[in-house]
């Protein structure tokens, strides 16, 4: 038995024609799984009985086992178990008029940002395409008839360090034969892996989706202390790579900036960040995220007044700046806080 979800339409067509099925069968199967979210082959009623039986013996759809859901006021955290016994966390965020799903791309993370709870355990392994897609399918099936319209790769892990699996999952999410989300409603949030961002900029599947990059400090040295990855992916080169990123006019790259009390939340930092962006104001928007404290880490959340002061300085420099008061904080599902908390 193998999983059907890593296949794209062309690949599934090759298989179904090899098995002597009609040419339209692959699209029909995709429609059941990604449009109707029907994952039981037996219930795909416009496919012949023999073929349904054959498909059921050949393919699995769900790669994860549902464990439990933890509801909060504005979000729900879902815990899944992989076949090899690891916990995967996914968070559904309820916005005013739509649902956003925050998916994980790795178990743990090797990047090692000092303020991040996921980093504490290091990297266990990459999630496979079927494990990323199943986070969507399982949560979507649970919230029917509501539809998830946005996906952010902002859960556990560095998505660009798991490039191939993330790419395939995004292909399934944005293709007309797949889940068919708008490319503008899928976001990859990265710690700033320069080589992978360059690769993404030339990739027809990934280059038009939203790119969010964690900056977190306007100075090279400070960024290196918060994000050791910065030693090999330097801040200035990263910013230049983003300035060169071939987005169409009007699209902006999101610079994520987690504000940590007394570390990177000063007025000087705000001015320095503005200068870093310089004359490329139309290429970026800045997202300020007040740090979400974790009991195992020594960092603190700044006062909101400090956050708004930081925002005002960037505004005064003509930079589009938002404050994100993280949803999901009460279930430890906010950015950088998805971890195997159930198991510690
Ligand atoms: S913030 Fe993101 S990239 Fe950094 S350690 Fe945490 S999960 Fe990894």
UniProtKB/TrEMBL annotation:
Residues 95-330 form the Radical SAM core domain. One of its GO terms (biological process) is tRNA methylation. InterPro entries: Aldolase_TIM, Methyltransferase_A, RlmN_N, RNA_MTrfase_RlmN, rRNA_lsu_MTrfase_RlmN/Cfr, rSAM, rSAM_sf. [4Fe-4S] cluster binds at residues 109, 113, 116. Its cofactor is [4Fe-4S] cluster. One of its GO terms (molecular function) is rRNA binding. It comes from the Bacteria. Binds 1 [4Fe-4S] cluster. The cluster is coordinated with 3 cysteines and an exchangeable S-adenosyl-L-methionine. Specifically methylates position 2 of adenine 2503 in 23S rRNA and position 2 of adenine 37 in tRNAs. NCBIfam families: rRNA_mod_RlmN. Belongs to the radical SAM superfamily. RlmN family. This is Probable dual-specificity RNA methyltransferase RlmN.
């Amino acid at each position: 038995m193998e999983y059907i979800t890593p296949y794209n339409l062309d690949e599934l067509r090759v298989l179904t024609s090899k098995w002597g099925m009609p040419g339209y069968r692959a699209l029909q199967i995709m429609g059941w799984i990604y449009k109707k979210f029907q994952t039981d082959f037996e219930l795909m009623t416009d496919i012949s009985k023999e073929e349904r039986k054959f498909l059921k013996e050949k393919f699995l759809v769900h790669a994860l086992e549902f464990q439990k859901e933890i509801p909060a006021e504005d979000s729900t955290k879902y815990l899944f178990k992989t076949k090899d016994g690891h916990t995967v966390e996914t968070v559904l965020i309820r916005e005013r008029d739509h649902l956003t799903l925050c998916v994980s791309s790795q178990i743990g993370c090797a990047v090692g940002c000092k303020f991040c709870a996921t980093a504490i355990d290091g990297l266990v392994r990459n999630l496979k395409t079927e494990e990323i897609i199943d986070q969507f399918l399982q949560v979507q099936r649970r919230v029917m008839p509501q539809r998830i319209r946005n996906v952010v790769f902002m859960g556990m892990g560095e998505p660009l360090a798991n490039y191939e699996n993330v790419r395939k999952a995004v292909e399934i999410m944005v293709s007309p034969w797949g889940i068919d989300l708008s490319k503008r409603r899928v976001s990859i949030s990265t710690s700033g892996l320069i080589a992978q961002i360059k690769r993404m900029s030339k990739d027809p599947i990934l280059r038009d989706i939203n790119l969010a990059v964690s900056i977190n400090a306007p100075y090279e040295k400070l960024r290196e202390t918060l994000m050791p990855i910065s030693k090999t992916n330097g801040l200035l080169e990263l910013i230049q790579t983003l300035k060169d990123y071939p987005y169409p006019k009007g699209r902006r790259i999101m610079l994520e900036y987690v504000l940590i009390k007394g570390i990177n939340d000063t007025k000087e930092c705000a001015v320095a960040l503005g200068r870093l962006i310089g004359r490329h104001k139309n290429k970026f928007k800045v997202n300020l995220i007040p740090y979400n404290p974790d009991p195992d880490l020594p960092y603190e959340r700044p006062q909101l007044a400090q956050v708004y002061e930081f925002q005002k300085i960037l505004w005064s420099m003509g930079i589009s700046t938002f404050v994100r008061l993280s949803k999901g904080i009460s279930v430890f599902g906010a950015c950088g806080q998805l971890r195997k908390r159930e198991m510690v």
